[in-house]
Structures are given as C-alpha cells and as structure tokens.
Amino acid sequence: MDKLPERIRIKDIARLAEVSVGTVDRVLHGRPGVSKNSRERVEKILKELDYHPNMYASALASNKKYNFVCMLPLHSTRSYWHDIEQGARKAELSYSDFHISVEMLHYDPYDFSSFESVGKKALDMNPDGVMFSPTMSRTTLVFTKELEERKIPYVFVDSQVKEASPLAFFGQQAMQSGYFAGRMLMLLAHEKEAVVVFRHSRGGQMGSNQQHEREIGFRYYMNEHHKTCKIWELDVDVRQNQEETIQLLDDFFTSHPEVKLGITFNSQVHVFGEYLEYRNKSKAFNLLGYDLLDRNVNCLRKGTVTFLIAQQPFFQGYNGIQTLCKSLILRKEVKQVNYMPIDLLSAENLDYYLDSQESE
Amino acid sequence: MDKLPERIRIKDIARLAEVSVGTVDRVLHGRPGVSKNSRERVEKILKELDYHPNMYASALASNKKYNFVCMLPLHSTRSYWHDIEQGARKAELSYSDFHISVEMLHYDPYDFSSFESVGKKALDMNPDGVMFSPTMSRTTLVFTKELEERKIPYVFVDSQVKEASPLAFFGQQAMQSGYFAGRMLMLLAHEKEAVVVFRHSRGGQMGSNQQHEREIGFRYYMNEHHKTCKIWELDVDVRQNQEETIQLLDDFFTSHPEVKLGITFNSQVHVFGEYLEYRNKSKAFNLLGYDLLDRNVNCLRKGTVTFLIAQQPFFQGYNGIQTLCKSLILRKEVKQVNYMPIDLLSAENLDYYLDSQESE
DNA sequence: AGTATCTTTGTGCGCGTACACAACTCCGTT
DNA sequence: AACGGAGTTGTGTACGCGCACAAAGATACT
Asked: pTM of the full predicted structure?
C-alpha cells in the first residue's frame, strides 16, 4: 500500500481509481467522454480524499484570459465611486498573474440612455464577468436579463435589485445604517430636539435608492425613540450656485434658530459643513453625513461635521472583482449577500481608518 | 524586432539581455556566479520592462514548505486571542497551495517562564517565520534578539515593542483608541459628570500594555475636555468569585450613587454588564468596553453595555500570516506598521460588523 | 602545450494542471 | 476477416519558474 502525499494531486486520484490523469481531469471539469463506471469511481475517490486542485497550477496551465467590465457612474476623483474603482484596480493588480483585466466604463447617473448605451458597449466586449452598481433600477433589469441569457455572471456593488440574481452583492444595509445614524445623531442632541434633513438632489431626483433607504431607517428610529422631535427638510439642488445655496441656508437658519442638528443621506455633507464654517456656526451645530470624500474629511477634521458614516467602498470594489476571480477561475463557492460594516468616524478615530483603507 | 508579449517572462528578459534564463534567474535571486557585465545588463532590462515574476509559477516551482509558528496567550474560545488565532488559521487555508503550515503554541500570560519555554519550543521547530504578541515586554526582547540572530522574520500582533524590529506589526493605536473611548463615553454623559474606570487585573498585574495605553489616552481626553469630571477607580481581581465581585460593586454604587458612566480597558466589560443586568441598573447607567467576546456582545444586545470598541482581531491574525507569505514566498515589500481601525459598535450596527469579520 | 581550478553560462527536469491528440476497445456492417 | 466509427482512455506538451548539473570559458601553473 503506497502512502499518500500530504497534498493530494490529480495523479494520486488517477492511481487510486485505476484510470489516467486525463480521465480524472475530464471528471473534474465535467467534460464528456467518460464511462459511467469510471466517472463514479473517480468521483467517489475525489470525495473520499477531499481533493482540491492546486489553484495556482491550474491557473498556470489553463492560461486563459479573463476580461471583466466594471460600470460605474461618472465621478470626480476622491468620490465614493472613485474609491470603488480604486478597489477594483487593486484587485486587478493582485490577481494579475491569473491574466485578468478590468475595463472601466462610466455612465451619466442622471441619464437612462447613457446607462443603456454603456451596457451595450459592455456586452459588445463579450466579458467573462461584470461588476456594476444598479443605480438605475428599471434599466438594470433589462441589462441583467441579457447577461443571464448570455450566462455572464455579474456582481452588484453599493446597492442591489431584488429581482436580479447576481453572483454576489457588496454594499451596506442602507436602512439599518440610517437607523444607526439616527441613534448617533440624537446622542448629540441633549435637550435640543429638532433636526433638519438636508437633501441634495437634481430637480428632486435622488441620486440613488440607497439614500432613500437611509432616510427611511432614520425616520424609523426617530419615530421609535424621539417621536416628538420635529424633523425639517431642506432641499438643495445640485445645480444651484454657491450664493443661492448660502441664501437658502441663511433663510432656513433665520426662520428656524432652534435647529441644532443636521443630517444628510448622500455624500454631499461638505456643502453644509462648509456653510457652517463660513457662517462660523459649527460650534453650536452638529452635522452627520456619509462617505469619506476629501471635502467631508476636511469638515470632520475642522469640526464642522461631527460624524461620518462610511461603508468601505474600496473593499466593495476589491471584493467584487475578487469574487469574480474566485468563482470563475478558482471555481470556489462564493457568498452571495455581503453587507459591509456600518462604520462610524469622528475626528478622533479617522486617521487609522483611512490608513487601513488604502493599503491592500 | 520581435514584439514583446503582454506579460514579460524570464525568457523575454534573457533574450533581450542576450544571456540564458539561468543567468537571469541568478540575478533575480541575488545568487553569485554572474559577471558584473551580465548582471548589469540584466538588471537594466529588468528595470526597463518592470519585470514582476509570476508568483504562482514561482511558488509552484520552488515547492518549498514554509513553517510558521504563532505564539499566543492561553485563552478560551471566543476570546480576543481566539479571533486572532482564527484569522491565522484562515490564512493558513488561503495560502495552503503555497505549502505553508501554521503551528499554534500557547503560553500562560501571567508567567514569564511559560513564555520563555514556549519561545524555546518555537525556536526548536526551526520555523521560517513567527507571529506573536509581545505581551511580555522584557522576555520579548531576549526572544526577538535570538530570532534576529537566526534571521527568522517575526510579526507582532496586538501590541509592539519599540526596541524590536519586526517584519510587520498589526494592532491598534491604543492611546488614540482610549482617547476616542473618552469622547464617546462623554457623549453619553449629559450633565451627569462622573465616571468609574473598572479594572480587572490579577493581583494588580495588568494583562497587557495595551490596556495601560488606552487608559492613558482616555485620561488625556478627560483632562483636555472634562477637567472637572471626577474619575473613580474600582479594581476587581480576576480570582475573586462572583459573590465577592457583586459585593464589591454593590458597595461602590451605594457610596457613589452619582456615577452613571463606566469604562473598562480590557475585554472583560461583561463582568460589569452582567452585574448591571443582575441589579437591574442598566437603564440608568452607560458602560463602554473593548472587544467583541460573546458575552460582551450579549451585553451590547441587551443594552447593559452601550458601546464596544473593536480592533478586528481576526484580520490581525490573517494579515500577520499573510504578511509572512508575501514577504518570504512572494518576496514583496510589506508595510511595517499597520494600525487597525478603531471601530465603534453599538446594538444598531453590530450585526453587519460581525458578518464582515467572519468571512474571508 | 597540457592540466587543474575557478568562474561564468547554458540546459533540462520537475512542480500540478489543462487540453489536444493519439490509441485502444467494442460492436455492427460488409 | 477486414473495416468504420463511436465511445473511452492514455499520453505528451505547455504554462513560468527554480534549481541542480553540465558545459564552456578564463586563468594560472607545471
């Protein structure tokens, strides 16, 4: 009786099943041309020995090129989307020895037809996998259906669409994060119980569903714990210029001097933080927002924003691409729903968070 | 002129430098037996083409076995150390195709000679790398000196020792985390300004330096922002039984009814949380502690502990082993000081954090 | 010139897997 | 008995690299 090596190889399986490595290979990859008898014998031994192929030898031998496409809204540097993109780029680098490439495509987040045409472009590239954020829920389903027909796996980042069947999803549980935001904001309240929700939209059209969900979670918390607390709303249109915004905020604070707490559910909290600094109001006002844009981080450091909630966009992008590799190249099972932690950042714990985000 | 393939290989370098692959290999590994002329020519081309070896082919070919040792204090399941160990185990699995093994050794955290003898055992195994937590600062230096003489790289987790030169360190900036803890605790204060620091030691001997550093950071914050706030201290010995502990706490709360805030700097906050539940005091008292032990998490869920500060022990362990692999096997540069984020957990954001910690 | 020694360079095999292709078996047909 | 074809099975080469060993060139000494 030969003893088995520490790490089982295909030829060990072959020897035990009394077939050649070619047959084992065919069984492993589910290819035809194997008799029922051999297939069963090989499968039995594979299971018995709990065989796992050496993924590095495997990748080396297959030598196939994998092309992934990543579709994100058009964005400026240091935005939330930018961080996701950085994560995807890093993953591309990490897995470069597997011959993967990640092609970036961008669309106008306020234009359905733009998403559509970028989606077409993506399909034309005949990718092995796609990663994108389903910010456009209606058009998304047309796109995912096409992907499913072509058997191209796709990964959602940031948000998800219930009707679709992605390989995986990476993002925050937005409602719970809004709930948590409410908790943290009211911790700052003391007796001053009145809150303003700053909205930042384009003609009333919200940037994403996530923002909406956050607000629902927030209002749920408020209804549960601070029913008497008055919640004001203030809409700022992204197309307004600075003077108009300042005027709007001045008017609001003149007519509502009792409001000492503010919250935003998108990543534009710096608009309000910078206003507070300009009017020198930050001492008496507490502001909570989302995402670690540079301008938001500056506000946090200066004290014009008290808390930021983060959601590890870098890792969303990194893990998204990583998951495609794991599933397609290494043929591993992957977890489908992956909620990112709801991270609370203040001036006091910010630095070490940023530090941990940028490295791999 | 031949065009270059997308991915540069050794033989491409060899062809361009007009030498054989053997010579390129010698240059890459800094081995002797190469003329100055050849070496320079090869190095020039390596740099020009920015050559990076295919690490998977490399690992496959070398086929060397790497043995790592991980030394941690003796601990029960679901403790902080346990999570580090889990991370190390996971890394062992992730990198199993590189033929690595991680041997776990445990020592009594209150016994210097135990650390010493375990250290000897580790050296006897002639490991390729060591990961441990320098909880015993004095004996650590003897051990690290020996490691350095034998040219065995080592990684610190949890805490570090200034005089040593580890390959890398993964842990929290303890002072800053104490500072942050102060900030968050005082957020819960409102007008009731009196705090008790619960200590949990063994005959006055603190478990680790990290705890001490946290308390320093905390007191620094208090001195900066709440100078008038009275800070009481209460020492509980780990060897006391439950009745004695309850008696001690009863006495304290009887004589100091005005104290409504408590903090601990080790991971034993559940001792106090469970007391609060037992005495039904949790509504009127806010408690902050460290680390996500099961019992602590239960307290958080029940509301007997308000906040926990976490430091991703799983990733400390995972990254520690990963770093050894990267440096030794893949010959990559690694970052030496890696501060873990200072994570704030409450009942509202706990679940998604736990979710993200357990998976890889 | 011949030989020994040292330095430098080139070659070949193996790591574990994937895949193309060759080879063999079995069975029915001519 | 010879042949063809489908269904199976085995074999050889390649992937990119590391390393042992062979080969060739250089130098010094007899």
From this structure: 0.91
